[in-house]
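Hi C.,

You asked whether I'd gotten around to modeling the 359-residue construct. I have! Everything is below, sequence then structure, no commentary in between.
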Amino acid sequence: MTAPHGRGLLHLAAALDQQTAFDAASYVGPAQLAERGGLDFVTLGDTFARPGPDALAVLSRVAPATRRIGLVPTVTTTHTEPFHVQAAVATLDWVSRGRAGWQLDVSTTEGEARLFGRRHAAPADALWREAGEIAEVAARLWDSWEDDAEIRDEATGRFVDRDKLHHVDFRGATFFVKGPSIVPRPPQGHPVRVVDATEGPARRVAARYADVALVRVVGPAQAWAVRAELRDAAAKFGRYPDTLRVLASLVVDLGDGERAAEPGHGGGGPRQTAQGPLYRGGPVDLAELIAAWHASEAVDGFHLTPVEPHRDLERLVNGTVALLQHRGLFRTFYPGSTLREHLGLARPANQYAVTGGAS
């Protein structure tokens, strides 16, 4: 287990989703804007259920155009090969020099299954059990190279110390992986794993494997209860609860300017909608909502999805975030270079190097 580190900090993230953008360059400017605001990370959703660019490939393009902000694509664990998924996420961590994350998701529909033709759709609880196994084997594969396994000895022609490569020999319910990985251990050790823990089947996976859990809630009391449940479950899995960050997910519409707050809600929100909890109002009242929820320890921070990507992200960074920074509630610079450092999470020890696991 990893010792607690960096509790009490406010964490902020934003989604870069754009329904009509298929060129990677469209995502560079918004990511740079979010970085200027000091946000911990940006996410980019992906699904087999609708057309769109590959999120991981897009953020690999964004990586060299940014320097500090974390990059978290959604990569589904259903119908994809676990070995390839972990290698792709590890590669993003190398490309970004330690800023990669991975939002795990599952594909539940028969239409998505038919795209691959290997198996039929399955219930969400079974798919999330599989996702948990894939999160586990990914961590083992990331550790299958010890940090000093690369020796690059030109005199002898040896590239790696084979004694420091390890077979993982993992058998899940639907797959078997021998290992080792084809990608050296990522700069962060383990890229940050993110799970939307709103629904029951995903919550167990989040408690056991996630570094960041996202929850769609409409009030601080509900958020506090979910956060407490996740932290208690994490402890039962042998984790320090303080190594799990819980962020409230809100859709934000900042296009109407400032308005007086409705009773109990900054700027007329959040309120439940088909897209999730929605805040509609101005940047100032959103800052008040964020500050109040975080002060009550309801959440560790917020993941915000702009209704209008360019307009709302600009108002979020230059309005809400600037106000939080002015009040000393959010960072004005990045104290480190990796996403784990932004989140106050230690770099995991290599399980094979520590325990001397068989190769």
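If it helps when you're writing up: DSSP finds eleven helices and 13 strands in the chain.

Thanks,
B.
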